[in-house]
Design brief:
heterodimer, A: about 475 residues, mainly alpha, globular, B: about 120 residues, Methane Monooxygenase Hydroxylase, Chain G, domain 1, 5 helices, about 70% helix
Chain lengths: ~475, ~120
């Protein structure tokens, strides 16, 4: 035991982000009411950590006495979280200034929450899973209620907090039962015991409770009730961050625990997850059709996407794992971008959030309309954008794992989703309307949106870039 | 495995017995001179029955929260202090990092003016 120097160097992206979050805290405390300083420091911190992460994509190694995995799978997931945080910070400054609640704490909380996500993706111990989830969630509870003078924002934070605390209870009870039956919280040790434990009913109850807790965090049916209200009330860029970074982190842990450690392929747990996936796809897509508020539509769409990705976990094979990892990266760029545009369109007091507020946007703001179209096409899964390949890989995985019904259901529900995604595009291009902005879009927001759009196109044209990389993580 | 819990069960049983015996001893041997004040519920010197619909200043919650935060974190110092010699330099450095993080939080709270009552 004990911490060695190599532990620190091999977890450089994590350690540097922790240090930068401290630095942001100091800067924020020192220079009172100068949130711009915190903005720059946090942006620099995420940038440094992102740059370091590219050097940590090699083989994964356990560090800190086997509590944490760094590099490989965790390194790749770090890229997802850090991209999400980076774009969210870029998009948030203009938005928060317009909404008159620009405070430095926002950036500190984004950094803390990202640290939590990085811990989750690298967890080799159930205690680390818990620590990561809590660090991420507590920061997000505060971020959801960041517009503290807005009733909707407070409602969102309170709902998320109460239900999130409940989910934490499920998680802890699950961990307790797993520890009670296996005698350890170390995931590697549990994976060795799994063949004999997988018939122990108490162990299975523990696993079931973990499924509940993770399904809550990824907003999968029937644990999705919080998502529309929370996403609607939270500051729009935070909704984008929650639906990408937080969801990706929960999926990373889900993958790590249920596919890498517990080999659930062909077991009853896989059936349970398949049913949750099917329910999420149906409920998410059908309910999204009826929405009039774009934020709520994106919330239901994010439930549906959780369903698509879960079919990769239910399949529990290499295709499923690589498919989810690709999907998560693509989805991160798409959804941060989509919520980013909604945040630009939004006015004070929840104005201009409905579908009809986008009528005729292309005439006056062609750049925004084009970007939104790219995001919507990618969400709908239309080639050549990245969303198509994400869906392709997870459904392929489902077919290979004899879950063909799930893949068929996925394709059918995707067809429903095309309706509400393209409805927005039709409104922007083929309707006469007076959709416009009464403010100029900051250049940094446009840069963030452009980064997201370019990434989607590049990922869609060269999916093998990522798939070859992710496939190498599973050659153990 | 269950045997290792025996001391805990003994501790719990001892606690229950001690509590019951002490209360009963008081009841048997103590003087009984009741009056209205003594028989009313003890509520830290406040009126026990009155309207609960009062407004408290948010300052109280702030102080309570800060107290609990720092109080709980300081609890971690005790196990470290007890096993200071065994943990050696590694333990000292780890604890220094911990206290540094705690100090950062304190610094933030102080600079943001959360410690000022008015």
């Amino acid at each position: 035991m004990g911490i060695t120097f190599s532990d620190i160097t091999s977890s450089a992206p994590l350690v540097s982000l922790v240090l930068f979050s401290f630095l942001t805290l100091i800067v924020e405390s020192w220079g009172k009411d100068k949130p711009v300083l915190s903005y720059w420091v946090s942006l620099l911190g995420v940038g440094v950590s992102l740059a370091l992460s590219f050097g940590h994509l090699g083989a994964g190694i356990p560090v800190f006495g086997g509590m944490l995995l760094q590099g490989g799978f965790a390194g790749y997931c770090n890229l997802i979280f850090l991209s999400s945080a980076f774009l969210t910070i870029l998009l948030s400054r203009g938005y928060l200034e317009r909404m008159e609640c620009h405070r430095g704490e926002f950036y500190i909380l984004i950094l803390f929450s990202t640290v939590g996500m990085m811990l989750m993706a690298g967890a080799l111990n159930l205690i680390t899973v818990f620590l990561g989830i809590e660090l991420m969630s507590v920061s997000l509870y505060v971020l959801a209620g960041f517009m503290r003078k807005k009733v909707r924002s407070n409602e969102s934070a309170l709902k998320y907090f109460l239900l999130g605390a409940f989910a934490t209870g499920f998680l802890l009870y699950g961990i307790a039962l797993i520890y009670g039956t296996s005698g350890t919280t170390d995931l590697v040790a549990i994976s060795k015991l799994f063949p004999q434990l997988s018939h122990n009913p108490i162990f299975l109850v523990g696993c079931g409770l973990l499924v509940v807790a993770f399904s809550f965090k990824i907003a999968a049916v029937p644990f999705h009730m919080w998502a529309p209200d929370v996403y609607e009330g939270a500051p729009t860029t935070v909704s984008g961050f929650m639906s990408t970074g937080a969801k990706a982190a929960a999926f990373a842990t889900f993958l790590l625990v249920f596919v890498r450690v517990f080999d659930i392929a062909g077991t009853s747990l896989s059936q349970v997850i398949a049913v949750i996936a099917a329910a999420s796809m149906i409920v998410g897509n059908v309910t999204a059709v009826a929405q009039t508020n774009v934020k709520r539509m994106l919330a239901y769409s994010s439930i549906a996407h959780a369903g698509y990705m879960l079919s990769g976990i239910a399949a529990a094979n290499v295709e499923g794992e690589t498919g989810i990892l690709f999907y998560l990266l693509a989805y991160t760029f798409v959804n941060v971008g989509a919520f980013g545009i909604v945040s630009i369109m939004e006015r004070q007091d929840d104005k201009k959030l409905n579908f009809e507020d986008y009528e005729g946007l292309s005439a006056r703001r062609p750049a925004l309309a084009v970007l939104m179209t790219i995001f919507m096409f990618s969400l709908a899964g239309i080639p050549p954008f990245a969303g198509f390949f994400g869906k392709y890989y997870v459904f392929l995985a489902a077919v290979k794992a004899n879950l063909t019904w799930l893949a068929i259901l996925g394709v059918l529900t995707s067809l429903i989703s095309v309706y509400y995604y393209l409805r927005l595009v039709v409104l922007m291009y083929f309707r006469e309307g007076d959709a416009d902005l009464d403010h100029s879009v900051p250049r940094r927001s446009m840069i963030a949106l452009a980064i997201a759009a370019i990434s989607i196109v590049v990922l869609g044209l060269y999916p093998s870039l990522i798939v070859d990389l992710t496939r190498s993580f599973f050659k153990i | 495995m269950l045997e290792s819990y025996v001391p805990i069960f003994v501790m719990i049983a001892g606690g229950v017995i001690f509590g019951v015996v002490m209360v009963k001893l008081n009841e048997w041997f103590g003087p009984h001179r009741p009056n209205d004040e003594k028989l009313s519920t003890y509520e830290s010197g406040m009126e026990p029955i009155r309207s609960a619909r009062e407004r408290f200043s948010v300052k109280f919650y702030m102080v309570a929260m800060l107290f609990i935060l720092f109080d709980i974190e300081v609890v971690f110092l005790y196990p470290w202090a007890v096993s200071f010699k065994q943990l050696g330099l590694g333990g000292f450095v780890t604890m220094a990092v911990f206290i540094f993080v705690l100090f950062l939080g304190y610094f933030y709270v102080w600079r943001k003016g959360a410690l000022e009552w008015d």
